[in-house]
What we know:
Largest sheet: 4 strands, antiparallel
Number of strands: 4
Radius of gyration: 17 Å
Mean pLDDT: 81
Distance between the termini: 60 Å
Number of helices: 1
Helix content: 40-55%
Low-confidence stretches: none
Order of helices and strands: EEEEH
Amino acid sequence: MTLSNRSKVISFYSEQLGKKISGTYSLSGRMVIVTTSDGRQRRAPAGGGKPETLARLALIELEAANSDVKKLVTCQESKKKTKVAT
């Protein structure tokens, strides 16, 4: 495993989320640092896994969490509109 802090671009289609995901990842010591295209970050221990595989998993987790937040906000906004309308 190369321990460098040079960022590598990663882009792939996530079947789980049904969309293309992209970002960058780099290694710092034994940590993989993943950054989404909108700037959110996650750090994960490199361990014995391939850094690109760990980066893909971290990007999927970040995007899934972001999707869940958007759904929650949309749901809360819909409830507020419904209460105002009744």
